[in-house]
Inverse folding.
């Protein structure tokens, strides 16, 4: 009886996993094909096969460059960042026990944003070419330390204290970003474009950073997923069944913040994926984290890459994908929420 | 089973709740703590379950000092049913009861047939099979208490702490649960239970601890210590003992 229920859930999980994986492969193939340059699906398929299996297939070299060096890294980056943000959102909602939490709640992203804007400002003023990504990453990690320090790392990490510390730091850093923006004068557009979050002009170098870090983080997050379930019941309830809650909260805090820091450093602040995707999966399938984490990752990947395709293909002037995800994600979420009778599931 | 020695505790460092509290809880008995609101009943359970840290003194559980017991080890010795769980992001009743097997599992290890059988038995015992697929926040208070009780039984520990765990159940399930507990006591388990219903406490407990303002007012067999004068002293109300007139 019970075994049947659990097995049914497991079967469903694998089925969803397979369907989503096939979907992702399809999206990759279609995404690289679509664009201003005229390339057919079979051509892009050949190019991918050629590159992956190192085969000798005759293909025009300019098409190869467009598919493999320009479109492919962007699409892969989008998939990974989407997955990362969705998983980070799932983690923060669980450890902060707050359905409104997302990767940006505790302010790590604002740290990254500040680092990026500061770098852009220095580059403008001193005509330098400092790289944005490492500075943004460094600042987000520093922010994490400050927040955890304020919330009290050695005491029991209360979710409300973490959220409060995050809000305080975020507000302060936002003001600092505003200051830099106003000081930048006419050159402010570079900062604004970065802050809005976009996936344009990503190269294999960025994929090389994203892929190992995010994949390992997600695997780690999934490994302790059963305990994450228990944590949603509260620190004390978790302790009652033998889970060392404090250690676990810290572990997940670091993983979630790390994923966020990497994603934000590379793509800027892309809103809503981290908030909505975990809820969608929870409402439509399960809230068990061992299923929730992998499925959220795949759904997040799909949603962000689709959104990126829309911004890339449908408008005359490319708009930042972060704007689109929030613009579509918000109303879509309200629609789902109102349609689902058991809204208290959230 | 549990020795509480010279225990002192205060919530904010100012108003002390317990001062040099000494209690010796014997093994294999059903012990009920009664007392007025705010006398420290729940706090005592939370101290024993290591949820709260005491200021001084010591608590010894099964010959081991509480401060030396790791969370996982404690979860195999002691199950605690608290008054309410934290808010949650949807958790099904079945998953909640399965948590009772968590202390016996390695990280990443799946539940085996034996675990599932134990869970199934306890769901049957507490008669809560028909809502196992519902979410914790969709069921009534009484149903939640039955699920919570099933989880505590599933944890299968020598020591069980219950904090008003039957308060929202109807009389049928209250009596059913207490009878199950009596069976568990026969198997050698120790039950430490906070209850407000003096009549049920009187009928089912082996011993009763009467707490008043953080002190043990009386500790002994129910028919010896529960009488009109002790109830007046502790609760401040006049009661009358009625023999064979109630419905229990």
């Amino acid at each position: 009886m019970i075994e049947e229920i659990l097995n049914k859930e497991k079967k469903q999980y694998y089925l969803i996993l397979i369907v989503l994986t096939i979907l992702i492969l399809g999206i990759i193939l279609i995404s690289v094909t679509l664009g201003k340059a005229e390339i057919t699906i079979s051509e892009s398929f050949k190019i991918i096969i050629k590159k992956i299996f190192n085969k000798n297939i005759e293909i025009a070299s300019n098409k190869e460059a467009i598919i493999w060096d320009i479109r492919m890294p962007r699409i892969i980056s989008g998939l990974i960042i989407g997955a990362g943000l969705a998983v980070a959102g799932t983690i923060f909602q669980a450890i902060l026990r707050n359905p409104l939490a997302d990767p940006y709640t505790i302010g790590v992203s604002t740290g990254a944003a500040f680092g990026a804007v500061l770098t852009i400002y220095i580059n403008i003023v001193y005509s330098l070419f400092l790289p944005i990504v490492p500075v943004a990453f460094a600042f987000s990690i520093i922010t994490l330390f400050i927040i955890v320090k304020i919330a009290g790392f050695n005491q029991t990490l209360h979710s409300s204290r973490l959220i409060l510390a995050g809000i305080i730091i975020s507000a302060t850093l936002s003001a600092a970003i505003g200051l830099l923006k106003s000081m930048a004068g006419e050159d402010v557009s570079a900062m604004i474009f970065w802050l809005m979050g976009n996936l344009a002009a990503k190269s294999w170098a960025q994929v090389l950073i994203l892929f190992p870090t995010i994949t390992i983080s997600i695997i780690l997050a999934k490994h302790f997923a059963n305990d994450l379930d228990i944590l949603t019941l509260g620190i004390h309830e978790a302790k009652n069944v033998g889970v060392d809650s404090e250690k676990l909260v810290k572990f997940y805090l670091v993983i979630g913040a790390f994923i966020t820091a990497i994603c934000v450093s590379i793509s800027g602040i892309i809103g809503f994926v981290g908030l909505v995707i975990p809820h969608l999966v929870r409402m439509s399938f399960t809230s068990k984290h061992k299923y929730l984490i992998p499925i959220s990752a795949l759904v997040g990947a799909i949603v962000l890459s689709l959104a990126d395709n829309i911004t890339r293909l449908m408008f005359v002037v490319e708009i930042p994908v972060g704007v689109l995800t929030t613009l579509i994600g918000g109303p879509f979420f309200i629609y789902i929420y109102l349609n689902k009778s058991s809204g208290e599931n959230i | 089973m549990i020795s509480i020695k010279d225990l002192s505790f205060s919530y904010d460092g100012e108003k002390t709740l317990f001062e040099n509290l000494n209690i010796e809880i014997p093994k294999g008995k059903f012990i009920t703590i009664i007392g007025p609101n705010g006398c420290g009943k729940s706090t005592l359970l939370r101290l024993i379950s290591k949820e709260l840290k005491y200021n001084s003194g010591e608590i010894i559980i099964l010959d081991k000092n509480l401060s030396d017991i790791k969370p996982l080890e404690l979860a195999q010795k002691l199950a605690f049913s608290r008054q309410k769980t934290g808010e949650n992001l949807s958790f099904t009743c079945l998953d909640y009861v399965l948590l009772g097997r968590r202390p016996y599992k390695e990280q990443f290890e799946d539940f085996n047939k034996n675990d599932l059988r134990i869970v199934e038995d306890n769901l049957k015992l507490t008669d809560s099979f028909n809502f196992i697929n519902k979410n914790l926040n969709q069921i009534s208070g009484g149903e939640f208490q039955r699920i919570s009780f099933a989880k505590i039984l599933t944890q299968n520990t020598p020591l069980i702490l219950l904090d008003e765990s039957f308060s929202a159940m109807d009389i049928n399930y209250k009596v059913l649960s207490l009878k199950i507990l009596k069976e568990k006591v026969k198997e050698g388990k120790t039950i430490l239970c906070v209850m407000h219903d003096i009549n049920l406490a009187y009928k089912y407990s082996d011993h009763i601890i009467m707490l008043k303002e953080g002190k043990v007012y009386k500790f002994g067999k129910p028919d010896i210590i529960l009488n009109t004068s002790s109830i007046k002293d502790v609760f401040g109300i006049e009661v009358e003992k009625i023999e064979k007139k109630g419905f229990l």
Summary: The domain at 2-235 of chain B is CATH 3.40.50.300 (Rossmann fold). Strands of chain B lie at 2-10, 16-25, 30-34, 56-61, 64-65, 78-81, 159-163, 190-194, 207-212, 215-220. Chain B has nine helices and ten strands. The radius of gyration of chain B is 18 Å.
